[in-house]
Amino acid sequence: MKIKLWWLTFSPLCWAGHFLASYLTTAIYCAKFASPEGDALPVRIAVAVFTIVALSLITFFGVRSLRLHRRGDATLPHDDDTVDDEQRFLGFAALLLAILSGIATLYTALVFVLMETCH
Amino acid sequence: MNISASQSALDFAGKGAERIAELFYWMTGGAIVIWIVVIGLAVYAVMSRRAHPVRMTHWLVIGGGAVIPTITLTALLSYGLAMLPELQEPAPKGSTTIEVAGVRWWWRVNYLDPSGGRIVTANEIYLPVDQPVEFKLTSEDVIHSFWIPSLGGKIDMVPGRTNRLKLHPTREGVFHGVCAEFCGEAHAQMRFRVVVTDQNAFDEWLETQSQASKSSSEMAEGEAMFLSRGCSACHTIRGTSADGMVGPDLTHFGSRLSIAAGVLDNTPQNLARWLVDTHGVKPGVEMPAFESLSGEEVDTLVRYLGALQ
Ligand SMILES: [Cu+2]
């Protein structure tokens, strides 16, 4: 398979989607369904699910990217105008972005590990 | 301006501010660690003439540039987040509850009386030491932000919404409060004083605030002038027929430390200046200047307002 530039955006999009979903769920739940003293357990469960989904997708993109990067034998620094160089470069950049997105997603999830209520 | 009162978050006098100061020092420490590792390795890379094994250079770059900063940030994030539940927790039921509304460019303050009533004042907040206090914060016009740096964190005051904040003063003294969200021309002069006292002095103060102003025969002339000059269209003085709501309640104005939301110390000279040069003191303010008052009239009003203890 040959990847396009779009491939780079997939992991960061998972991170963005995870952040938005977590934020919106919390805002709506805490404003509409919980008392001010309210426990946020349903939100925390929902975010746990979002996190599993997001991390699975990010892992998938990361592993694919690593494979793409390893394929072929174009040499560093991957800046020749050839398909091989392009693919190795994209694979590597996408891998780094996947790692970054994974950490960022975990940081978002950490909030919900440490916060138990809606205050 | 009374600069002896503290406005520093690091000179803390409340539980929230103490945690914030603690967090600030840890964050500074963490930033220094990251800076030293990253810049240290960069400088080493520039200075070093020796060739290194490729594997080692990888680990120096990845370890120093990514792994150590990530670990440091994760530790700081966890530490900061772990503080929040306690700080965000509402004050226990039965704690003193104070409603504060931001109004361009001053603060309407209502103490909720346990019996259900409201004790109205403005621009000055008394708090009992070593007691949690619950604030209910709103705005009557634009977004303001309520912040007493020495006592704790700040929170926005949003029109149509009530935000809550718990503060827990731990030291007696006078502190500065400020508006921390740009709200227009006089934003920088939208301030207030916070007086933290022992429980007895607080109870006494609140009892006084709950009463109408005492009137005496010496005050009759000033009161009549206050009413006839139209001040009462905007200001309330309980115990008189002045019941305007546009400006701050002045029932016990004489006992306040400051004039015009923390801008001037409350002295007769400053008060006289405030009445005739209102916009010179606080540009943009929503009170007309009373330039047409004669010196004698100003004196009468100043004496009257000062007597509103
Ligand atoms: Cu303001």
TrEMBL record, chain A:
Keywords: Membrane, Transmembrane, Transmembrane helix. The chain crosses the membrane at residues 43-63, 89-115. This is Uncharacterized protein. It comes from Allorhodopirellula solitaria.
From TrEMBL, chain B:
It is a multi-pass membrane protein. Belongs to the cytochrome c oxidase subunit 2 family. Coiled coil: none annotated. Keywords: Copper, Electron transport, Heme, Iron, Membrane, Metal-binding, Oxidoreductase, Respiratory chain, Transmembrane, Transmembrane helix, Transport. The keyword Transmembrane applies. This is Cytochrome aa3 subunit 2. Residues 217-309 form the Cytochrome c domain. Subunits I and II form the functional core of the enzyme complex. Electrons originating in cytochrome c are transferred via heme a and Cu(A) to the binuclear center formed by heme a3 and Cu(B). Residues 93-208 form the Cytochrome oxidase subunit II copper A binding domain. One of its GO terms (cellular component) is membrane. The chain crosses the membrane at residues 23-47, 59-82. SUPFAM superfamilies: Cupredoxins, Cytochrome c. It holds the Pfam family Cytochrom_C. GO terms for molecular function: copper ion binding; cytochrome-c oxidase activity; heme binding; oxidoreductase activity. It is found in: Membrane. GO terms for biological process: ATP synthesis coupled electron transport.
